[in-house]
Amino acid sequence: MLDITRRIRSNWSLKVVLGLVSLLIIFGALSFIQQDNMTTVDARKMANYDMGATVFSGDDVINENSINKYPLASNLGYLVYQIRIINIEGVLQSITTGAVPLPISEFTKYGISDAGEAEGFIGPGVLTVEGNALVVKPPSNFVWGYKTPYTYGVKTKEGIDIVENNETIKSISKNDINNDTIPSKYSSGEDVIKWYDRNDIGSNITLDYGLSDFSDNRSTIPPKDIEEYFGEDVANYTQIHPSGAPVMIYMANYDEKVGSDAYTYLGSYPQYNDNNRAFNAKQFALAWNNTIIPPNSTSSGTEIIGFAASADPHAPGGYASHGVCPPARALRAVAMSLGFPLPQGMNGASEAVNFGVNPGSGIKVTNTGDVPVKIIMWTEGEGPGMIIYAKMIELIPEGYEDTNSIDSTNN
Predict the structure, then answer these.
(1) Is residue 82 in a domain?
(2) Residue 225 confidence (pLDDT)
């Protein structure tokens, strides 16, 4: 019985295809008939997503239910199109209703197939318009955005409102504030309660971050989509870097070139606790290792790395994170040797980090070059003899002619 059913379906499919081919031949001869003079088509209204949306190959970017339809009798060429792409449902609807949809190829340029799917690229594309045609632009070699506050808690008389994109998505009474009700990777329920008790009605606290202000003008990506779209590494990078930091979401077709390198020794200053100093030097290298700074952007290291404080009568408050200045000197050297300005939060002296500046999130390096750079830092050895290394790696896209690069070594 099953074999009989399969044969019936197979024969039916063959007849449908042959019928469509016949119609294609017939209507092909008639497709010269003048089509209706159409009013201006708004291609954006026929998209499944808002302009600026991030899309991937295979995504349905056209909403077929929103495509403009025209009288079949004077637009036989449009029916030919439906037959050519073997859109059986579209052909049947056109014949039975007398109205045929505008071919997708009429209001798209590139990056979108005749079936309305994104195609022809790898990575996160972006849906937009050129003229009055929909297109999906492929990502360039490098695409980056910036970590931006996205979800807020706003204090009310009864508790807090959770706000996203200027819309209140839910309200929580003070007694219900806990880790399960607060949508945050950055603040615990206890943190929010402390904030609530210390602030006035109308005050707000940032609970989560998205990515915005992209290099290719794509739309803001909410927190829930960062890992799904760009992977776990990008999500982790976003989480550990401070608000406002650039985040590279896509890199492809590039070479790495050592633009500059440097090293320093930790040395011994027992009055500031050499064990603490060695710990802080390692923490500094950890905070900055693998930081990527796009061209014409400024970034710091991570903000979740802790540093040990040692007593220092000359420091404000009587304590300082000694041991961070040797690695800071190495970082300063590789940045300035590429022509970058003195990093913010630093000075030109041996004690390179200014008092009161967090060595991870407080120091900021500005890339004034034309290509992204990646900072590599690590340590070797222990105690006062520890060596701290730094490299500034230039990420060179394919086809880039580097006419201004400075290739030097700093020891």
Answers:
(1) yes
(2) 96
Q: Give the span between the Cα atoms of 43 and 243, in whole angstroms.
A: 36
Note whether residue 1 is domain-resident. Answer: no
Measured between its terminal Cα atoms, the distance across the chain in Å is 82
Task: State how many domains the chain has.
Answer: 3
Do 263 and 411 form a contact (C-beta atoms < 8 A)? yes
Q: Are 55 and 61 in contact (CB under 8 A)?
A: yes
CA distance 200 to 314: 37
Of the candidates 209, 243, 277, which is a domain's last residue?
A: 243
* pLDDT tens column, 135-193: 999 999 999 999 999 999 999 999 999 999 889 999 999 999 999 999 888 889 999 99
- Answer for the pair 358, 303: CB distance below 8 angstroms, yes or no: yes
CA distance 69 to 49: 20
Closest CA to 273 of 359, 163, 383: 383
**In the numeric block, which tokens belong to residue 366?**
């500005």
**Do 344 and 268 fall into the same domain?**
yes
d(CA 257, CA 374): 10
Q: Which residue reads 């615990």 in tokens?
A: 188
Of 243, 263, 283, which residue is a domain's last?
Answer: 243
Q: Are residues 207 and 270 in the same domain?
A: no
- The counts of H helices and E strands in the chain are 8, 18
Output DSSP code: residue 180.
T
- Our measurement of the distance from residue 280's CA atom to the centroid of its chain's CA atoms, rounded to an integer in Å, reads 31
| CA 252/CA 239 separation, integer angstroms | 23
Say how far apart CA 401 and CA 240 lie, in whole Å.
Answer: 34
Prediction pTM value: 0.84
Looking at the structure, do residues 79 and 22 belong to the same domain, yes or no?
yes
Higher pLDDT, 220 or 10: 220
Tens digit of each residue's pLDDT (9 = 90 or more) over 84-109: 777 777 777 778 878 788 888 889 99
Q: Are residues 150 and 272 in the same domain?
A: no
Report which of 212, 206, 215, 205 is spatially closest to residue 226, judged by C-alpha positions: 212
